[in-house]
Design brief:
Elements (H helix, E strand, L loop, with lengths): L1 H14 L4 H6 L5 E8 L3 E2 L3 H11 L4 E4 L6 E2 L4 E8 H34 L3 E3 L9 H11 L12 E3 L1 H7 L2 H12 L5 E5 L2 H10 L3 E5 L3 H11 L4 E5 L7 H5 L5 E3 L12 E9 L1
Parallel strand pairs: 6-11, 7-8, 8-9, 9-10, 10-11
Antiparallel strand pairs: 1-5, 1-12, 2-4, 3-5
Helix pairs in contact: 1-3, 1-4, 3-4, 4-5, 7-8, 8-9
Length: 277
């Protein structure tokens, strides 16, 4: 399973040949209880992954969630209790926290952006601009936050982008080639950058038209031209500060790389709270 591979690589990266500090101070008989605490407000995400991390290091570590996946946790809230060998808890600590912090950051942003989209009946989705190797987890966090996924891989749907168009010679040629090979069942999305490309995409029979890096004013003009003949997706240059303005144009979908490529991780901390004899 791909998540198992991600966890294995992360642990290998962090542990190397062992934990020289913990291995020197503690023995396998030393046990403790620890708590993971939210250091800021966040939408909690990554509990299943953290559970797999601790299990991979030591199945004897007891894993007790104190909050639910997708729950809004306030600063200072306890999210997880761990009990077991000190060595195992400390060896899994950073890897588990790294996953939880990144995924909680994405889920928190997704919750905020999806709420803005909901006000205008606009679907907010992610893109393929994810951390290399982490796409499944990144996109999982987007869903936990309440936003939606775009393509997970290039095999998921037809999207004719600028380089396809340039190499094929035109939007029309690219669409014709796709239709001649894959038939009528899959939807065809075409990326456009100005009104004339929108007109060509419509004439060629595109099902979804992406308006790429356009201003809200340009989008409104293109929306009038499309007039319900295709699903309208907006992408490029959309961020937290201008999302509402883009939603107000009345498009169907806004895809945001900002959901995954630059979202700040949320701060979580593991604290040993009790030594168990």
């Amino acid at each position: 399973m791909i998540i198992d591979k991600i966890i294995e690589l992360a642990l290998e990266e962090d542990l190397g040949l062992g934990d020289i500090t913990s291995d020197t101070i503690f023995s396998a008989h030393d046990k403790a209880r620890a708590i993971i605490v939210a250091k800021e407000d966040l939408v909690l995400c990554g509990l299943p992954t953290a559970k797999e991390v601790f299990a991979a290091v030591d199945p004897k570590v007891e894993f007790k969630p104190l909050a639910q996946e997708g729950e809004l946790v306030k600063k200072g809230g306890n999210v997880l209790e761990l009990c077991g060998p000190v060595l195992s808890i400390l060896k899994a600590e950073r890897t588990a926290l790294n996953f939880m912090q990144r995924l909680s950051g994405i889920a928190t942003a997704a919750r905020e952006y999806a709420a803005i989209g909901k006000k205008y009946n606009v679907m907010i989705t992610d893109t393929r601009k994810t951390q290399p190797g982490m796409r499944r987890l990144d996109k999982y966090a987007v869903r936990i936050g309440g936003a939606r996924n775009h393509r997970i891989s290039l095999a998921d749907s037809v999207m004719i982008k600028d380089n396809h168009i340039k190499a094929a010679g035109s939007i029309t040629r690219a669409v014709e080639k796709i239709k001649s090979v894959i038939g009528h069942t899959p939807k065809i999305e075409v990326e456009t950058t100005h009104l004339e490309e929108v007109k060509e995409a419509l004439k060629a029979g595109a099902d979804i038209i992406m308006l790429d890096n356009m201003t809200p004013e340009e989008i409104i003009r293109c929306k009038k031209e499309i007039a319900g003949r295709a699903i309208i997706e907006v992408s490029g240059g959309v961020n937290k500060d201008n999302l509402e303005k883009y939603c107000q144009t009345g498009v169907d979908v806004i895809s945001m790389g900002a959901l995954t490529h630059s979202v700040p991780a949320k701060d979580l901390s593991l604290k040993i709270v009790e030594y168990i004899k």
